[in-house]
């Protein structure tokens, strides 16, 4: 008599049992599953090149009258960098980039360059729940980069960071790049630092 074969799952492992209808199994064979072949690992992307042109950091820790920002007023970030806190590690074609009259001056042949402006501030907001907006102004009809930071408290020092990225075009070449701040609540800047970080060059050397 030919016995039917039934597949029974026991504790997550498949088993094959041989039994006749209405009778208990008379034989049980455990079959261990096999792991499938490992997939092919994808290709790794190109290594990032951030930082290969160096960077320029300028900073100031003196509180001046221009460090007071009224609510709702768009005001330029102005300060004289402290030489003791200036770190100029720019190299390659970016060594001519500098901070003059409260704005960055692009390198003369820098059309098409990409760069980041990282703004680090210590501020004291007068009221809680405010927002500080930052924008990068190159003298064109509208800012070329914007960012926002939501303040957490009031009356105490708070660290605020913005990252603004832009490409060097006619506006930056002709007018430089200035940073403006606008707060929904009044605030005072206790210290400011800006890192200029070149990312890539344009078509000109």
TrEMBL record:
<protein>
    <submittedName>
        <fullName>Phage tail fiber protein</fullName>
    </submittedName>
</protein>
